[in-house]
Design goal:
Blueprint lengths: L3 E8 H9 L16 H12 L7 E6 L2 E6 L1 H12 L1 E3 L34 H4 L5 H5 L6 E3 L9 H4 L1 E8 L4 H13 L7 H9 L5 H5 L8 E4 L2 E4 L2 H14 L13 H13 L12 H5 L1 H10 L6 E2 L2 H17 L9 H16 L5 H6 L4 H16 L4
Parallel strand pairs: 2-6, 7-9
Antiparallel strand pairs: 1-6, 2-3, 4-5, 7-8
Helix pairs in contact: 1-3, 2-3, 7-8, 8-11, 10-14, 13-14, 14-15, 14-17, 15-17
Length: about 375
């Protein structure tokens, strides 16, 4: 039997009831709320003017109905129903620190990151009805004015849906739907696209984007970017498979994101990719060991000034912690950090290649050099 799709429509009131009762659920990979107050008012005006509003896409997975597309519309409807909007300065600015790129220039690739660390789940913590929510502390929310809604607005306006029931590989199917739908909307960040690839796999969020690396920063021209952990995992995994760096990213050219997505697919699917070392749950569970080593080295919260520094410090650490299950002896920490710093200075000040390396660190020959060098340094200290 092939994938099945059903179509229909619900009143806006019923959509709100589905959200409040948690009968439809927002997957963790979904981006946070990106619409401003004007966007919310425009949506409401579209209904008032009988304009077309794109339908909501719901996917069924193991008896749970997931919101695949339509979070912005449903969030806006709920906020309009309550007459509230989250204050920008009251919610953490999640995902606004983009991933560091490989060429030490200031990247605009993820500039469309959400402006709020907020989803409608924040309101659901306060209650399951309008009365419960409005009677709770809403000091972190502004009042939306100029809605001018008729009393029966939510009962008499309707919004369509597509209801998806995948037969095989729901993870891949939902990911492709999510990506295709969003290609024409607000640009997805790399993290958002990747999360859609693995959100159904328990524990993989902390493997691909663990908390212990989220505040390791590369700062360039006063712009802060956090490290791309999938980059380190994938390149180290390929190094482990080949026992050298000579083929890293071979045949991918400038398609690094495809390489990272292929690695994610390798880790979550039954079809292993021969390019990478085999994945098993033991690798996933070693993130806690990596966290301990990061704390030993005092890398938690560390700010690097270049991707060169970052790579020398991290490729070997991730390789040995995750793929070799080896750890740093407390007595070796000072010596290791001195060796890492010396290596960074040696690379940057090399009379023949230092200038070019600093200008184009993403060049494969320089990237492969940093991977090899970092692993070589850590080999002496990891037990």
């Amino acid at each position: 039997m092939s994938n099945r799709t059903y179509y229909g429509e619900y009143s806006l009131k019923y959509w709100i009831e589905l959200v409040l009762s948690k009968k439809i659920v927002l997957p963790e990979y979904q981006r946070t709320f990106v619409w401003n107050k004007d966007d919310v008012l425009k949506l409401i005006q579209s209904f008032k003017d009988n304009l077309f509003v794109p339908s909501i896409t719901i996917g069924n997975y193991e008896g749970q109905d997931l919101i695949i597309d339509g979070q912005q519309r449903l969030s806006s409807l709920l906020l309009s129903f309550l007459g509230k909007y989250p204050k920008l300065d009251k919610f953490s600015f999640e995902n606004t620190v983009p991933l560091a790129n490989e060429n030490d220039d200031v990247s605009d690739s993820d500039n469309d990151a959400p402006i709020l660390g907020w989803t409608f789940n924040e309101l659901l913590k306060k209650g399951s009805s309008k009365e419960q929510i409005l009677s709770s502390d809403l000091s972190d929310y502004d009042t939306i004015t100029n809605l001018n809604l008729a009393e029966d607005f939510f009962e008499n306006n309707y919004l369509g849906f597509s209801y998806l029931i995948p037969e095989d590989n729901p993870q891949k199917y939902f990911s492709s739907v999510f990506k295709n739908i969003n290609e024409s909307g607000k640009k997805l960040s790399s993290l958002e696209t990747r999360r859609s690839l693995y959100f159904l796999k328990e524990g993989m969020e902390q493997f691909f984007d663990p908390d212990c690396i989220k505040n390791i920063i590369v700062e360039k021209d006063k712009k802060r970017e956090r490290i791309d952990f999938v980059r380190y995992l994938s390149l180290d995994s390929q190094y482990k498979k080949n026992e050298n760096a000579s083929n890293l990213l071979k045949n991918y050219g400038k398609k690094e994101e495809k390489y990272y997505n292929d690695f994610i697919d390798h880790c979550i699917s039954q079809n292993a990719n021969d390019m990478f070392t085999p994945f098993n749950d033991s690798l996933k569970h070693r993130i806690e060991s990596l966290k301990q080593d990061i704390n030993k080295l005092n890398f938690n919260g560390k700010t690097f000034t270049s991707i060169i520094d970052c790579d020398i410090y991290l490729f070997g650490l991730v390789f040995y912690s995750i793929f070799e299950d080896k750890h740093i002896n407390d007595n070796d920490v000072a010596s290791l950090k001195e060796k890492l710093e010396d290596s960074v200075n040696e690379i940057k000040n090399d009379s023949s290649t230092g200038t070019l390396h600093k200008k184009t660190p993403s060049a494969l020959k320089y990237l492969r050099l940093r991977v090899s060098k970092s692993i070589e340094i850590y080999r002496e200290y990891m037990r």
